[in-house]
Amino acid sequence: MKAWLEEKEKKHPGNEYLFPGRYGGHITARYVEQLVKDWGRFARLEIHPHVLRHTAATNMLETGADLVTVAQILGHSNLNETAIYTKPSTRRMAEALERGEV
User: Fold this and answer.
1) Residue 60, by phi and psi: left (phi above 0), alpha (psi -120 to 50) or beta?
2) How far apart are CA 70 and CA 61, in angstroms?
3) Where are the domains of the chain?
4) What is the reported pTM?
């Protein structure tokens, strides 16, 4: 992150945004969506930003972040929206079965 901030300041001096746009301001959500899809195609993966968002939320919860904190980060006003990410995956359930936790 430190390296990016130094590089950003060289290329876009004074721009307050973490990811500045080419002509001032910031990059758009649509641009990020297109980048993710393009990188996914390059890697031969079907991926979009929501998959990354879901993975990040799940990882935060699995590594000990509390539901309220994750909800704040995701911008959810209702904890039920965030609780979806607490649902165990098939892989996690299979691992629990293997360990005899069920």
Assistant:
1) alpha
2) 7
3) 48-99
4) 0.62
